[in-house]
Design goal:
14 helices; single chain; mainly alpha; two-stranded antiparallel ribbon
């Protein structure tokens, strides 16, 4: 059985090795990033005569001066120039550069930052955004400073946040849809958390039961009708428009014959009631 590699395998690993050479990464890091098995990679790299690139030696003093002149952070400058930042940090540490912060000084600096955050009322993310700090680094130092602090899980924080939202919604007296539109809350999330927390619809007040002595005459203006009104003189191509105080508009249009009969019926019933009285 022929065990020689096929041309397709050779072309495949040729492209992989060329990509590794262009990336500038080590073989281990490149295989991890591209999810390539390491053993065949090294075997094919040897067969195809791909040499390991010569390690670049940087002039760290010049790199450090360029970083200070650029006004950028070390990480950002090194990322733009393709320079490993760990090498610059190590060089600063060896020569005891003024920009190098000793671990004890860094610890004291972060302790002061965390105490300043605890004295305020901002969240971690808001405090980091205002002071230009990295939230993951801040969170790591805060956990190191308060190792015994009881922390809430993401689910517990979400439950607490949505509980406050539902309490505010019940106090507002608005419907779910209107409340979400005014407060900028996502409708689907609102309904989903309402089902999870078993939030019931608030009991809306019934004003007619609370005010049995309400008098409709105080809220409506009576319009007298007479049987002598001539409704046949109304034009057939016109309409009636009623504007209510709430801003609603009522339009009545169509054939006046049916409307005349309906109004006549109302007028007659009113006159008959007056005669009986």
């Amino acid at each position: 059985m022929d065990s020689t590699p096929s041309d397709q395998d050779r072309e495949k690993w040729q492209k992989i090795c060329e990509g590794w050479q262009i990336s500038g990464l080590s073989g281990k890091k490149y295989c991890k990033r591209e999810k390539i098995p390491m053993k065949p990679f090294y075997s094919w790299r040897k067969q195809l005569n791909f040499l390991v690139p010569i390690k670049v030696i940087y002039n760290w003093e010049e790199v450090n001066n360029n970083v200070e002149d650029s006004g950028l952070s070390v990480d950002r400058y090194c990322k733009e120039k393709g320079i490993p930042p760990s090498g610059l940090y190590l060089w600063r540490r060896k020569i005891n550069h003024p920009a190098y912060i000793k671990p004890k000084e860094r610890y004291d600096e972060w302790i002061e930052i965390i105490k300043d955050w605890e004295a305020g009322s901002l969240t971690q993310r808001a405090y980091c955004m205002r002071n230009g700090l990295s939230p993951p680094i801040f969170n790591r130092w805060e956990r190191r400073h308060n190792p015994h602090k009881i922390r809430k899980t993401c689910h517990e924080e979400a439950v607490e946040r949505w509980t406050k939202i539902f309490e505010d919604w019940k106090e507002s007296g608005l419907s779910k849809f209107t409340y979400c539109q005014r407060k900028g809350v996502t409708h689907s999330c609102f309904y989903k958390w309402a089902r999870r927390l078993n939030v019931l619809e608030p009991i809306r007040p019934d004003f007619t039961r609370q005010r049995p002595d309400i008098c409709l005459e105080d809220h409506f203006t009576p319009i007298p009708f007479s049987s002598d009104i001539s409704l046949g003189s109304l034009p057939a191509d016109k309409k009636i428009e009623i504007t209510l105080p709430q801003g609603h508009h009522l339009h009545i249009e169509g054939q006046w014959e049916g409307l005349n009969a309906w109004v006549d019926l109302l007028v007659r019933s009113e006159t008959n009631d007056k005669k009986e009285i």
